[in-house]
Amino acid sequence: MLKVENLTKKFEESYALKDVNFSLKKGEIHGLVGANGSGKSTLMNILFGSGHIKDTGGYSGRIFIEEENITISSTLDALRHGIGLVHQEFALLGSLDISSNIKINRENIYPLAGKILGREFGIVDTKKNKEDAKNALSKIGVNIDPSIKVSNVSINMKQFIEIAREIDNTNLKILMLDEPTASLNQEDTRILLKSLRAIADTGISIIFVSHRLEEVTQICDRVTVLRDGEVISHYSKEEFEINKIALDMIGIQVVQTKRKRTVGNRDKIISFQNVQVTQGDKLYKEISLDIKKGEVLGITGLAGYGQEIFGYGLMGLYDMKGNVFINGEKVIPGDVGLISKKGIYMLPDERKEMGLLLGSSIWENVVFGSYEQHKEFLKYPKMKGLSFLNHGVIDNYSSKLVEDLNIKVRDIYQPIKELSGGNQQKVCIARALTINPEILFVGEPTRGIDIYSKEIVLEMLLKMNEEKGMTIVISSGEIGELKRICDRIVIMYGGEVFDILEPDVDDEVFSLAISGRRVESYEKN
Ligand SMILES: Nc1ncnc2c1ncn2[C@@H]1O[C@H](COP(=O)(O)OP(=O)(O)OP(=O)(O)O)[C@@H](O)[C@H]1O
């Protein structure tokens, strides 16, 4: 179906891809793996004719589709050749319904469409659009009313809608998926993976990019490993071995981080008492939770069940009402100024909303907002915000953090918008660590991050907890990670705190709790 030969892409003097050879068979699911910044997105962006490839000098090398040597210089070229891409970041229009999003630019038009006063016009056949949308969604195992507005659906569902939009294209030959399961819960991941196999069986070829090697080895027919823009190895199904693939990706053995647990009875640092949280048309009622000083608290559950509501509510991203106490003192949720002064910082899980200063450099993003905590960043600390910055100190500090967190950059002056997604994510973590809050709320801290850097990020969080006594609240769907590093894990179910579990209880207990059941009822059944 596809063959690329000596594909090379340079950004100024540095290679993002170097002489990459890669092939994709008809109906194959091909895993593309590599550390953050290894060139996966660049490869897909070239194949999808992304503007930023052209704007930065194009690519060299040859691309063949079904033996035909083609040039891809625009998205239109890619679409014409039947290539579709689903990005990590969603590009849906929230104010439109699901079917309008799926049929965008491919709307069904009534045959009576024609010309009025010389202008072309058409009337959209919304009924047919809905049928098509339903059909595309059913191919990926989803049954939902396509008239629902996209702004009212969960992140899980948005991912399915994005994929359905590509599937709806009858000309589709190659579907490229950039971390399609990163925002899905376990059940939806299972549904998606199963559907991808069914889609591949219809003859569509799939490029599957993911940092979750278990999924890659489960679903793919072959895997190609990239490291620093070069192909390091190819594997076919019978040769798959996660450790071997990981070693090829990173170059060194990855050691899993684990917390040495030392919790005793601790004082409450934050207490949510019967709070009510509203997010869009969702309402969470009568929620209570105590967070203990110095603990690492995990919050998990199926997507949409509210694991993020505490941080988001406290910081005013969702509307929270009710009694919230910080160190025994009542605060008004959403009063961000006061809450920040009390040493609370939140890093939300939606990357786009993380507040990266996209036009600024890495160092600016790392130290932004932390001059209070790091007076050494200022030449004249007494002048506060009016002081010149102490660039020597800031440069050393940012360079060290970039190195410690394994962030792949040219130098700390590089604009953050030039970094790969995973490396941008790590800069967000770097900023949170620099702000050094007393309490850190962090959502999905390892999403989009490669297996090696994941461990570094987890290790850094633990270090901040152990050495600085930082209380850390992590909302995440990565239960395995939470079990390794948390003191307690809150399970949200149906918009309530369903249970709080010790991290070393059986996996089975966790799985049951996540689906709203308890062990006793399981045993009875
Ligand atoms: N516009 C740009 N200018 C300069 N360098 C760039 C630009 N876009 C990407 N790069 C560099 O190209 C390299 C490959 O990035 P790419 O986004 O392809 O990595 P990736 O494998 O997709 O990473 P991730 O797993 O983090 O998504 C990185 O070093 C990145 O900094």
Task: Write up what this structure looks like.
This protein is an alpha/beta fold and 525 residues long. The chain folds into 3 domains: 2-250, P-loop containing nucleotide triphosphate hydrolases (Rossmann fold, 3-Layer(aba) Sandwich), CATH 3.40.50; 254-343 and 438-525, P-loop containing nucleotide triphosphate hydrolases (Rossmann fold, 3-Layer(aba) Sandwich); 351-436, P-loop containing nucleotide triphosphate hydrolases (Rossmann fold). It has 18 helices and 22 strands. A hairpin with a 2-residue loop joins β4 and β5. α5 crosses α6 (155-167). The longest helix is centred in the last third of the chain and has 18 residues, at 451-468. The protein is globular. The structure holds adenosine-5'-triphosphate. Adenosine-5'-triphosphate is lined by residues 11, 16, 34, 36-42, 52, 56, 408, 418-423, 450.
Task: Report helical residue fraction.
Answer: 25-40%
Task: Give the tally of structural domains.
Answer: 3
Largest pleated sheet: 6 strands, mixed
Give the class-level CATH name of the largest domain. Answer: Alpha Beta
The computed structural class is alpha/beta
State the CATH architecture of the largest domain.
Answer: 3-Layer(aba) Sandwich
Which consecutive residue ranges, at least 5 long each, have pLDDT under 50? none
What is the rounded Rg?
24 Å
Bound molecules: adenosine-5'-triphosphate
Q: Give the amount of beta strand, in percent.
A: 25-35%
Query: For the residues shown, what is the average pLDDT?
Result: 88
Distance between the termini: 49 Å
Pfam families: ABC_tran
Protein name: ABC transporter domain-containing protein
InterPro entries: AAA+_ATPase, ABC_carbohydrate_import_ATPase, ABC_transporter-like_ATP-bd, ABC_transporter-like_CS, P-loop_NTPase
Keywords: ATP-binding, Nucleotide-binding
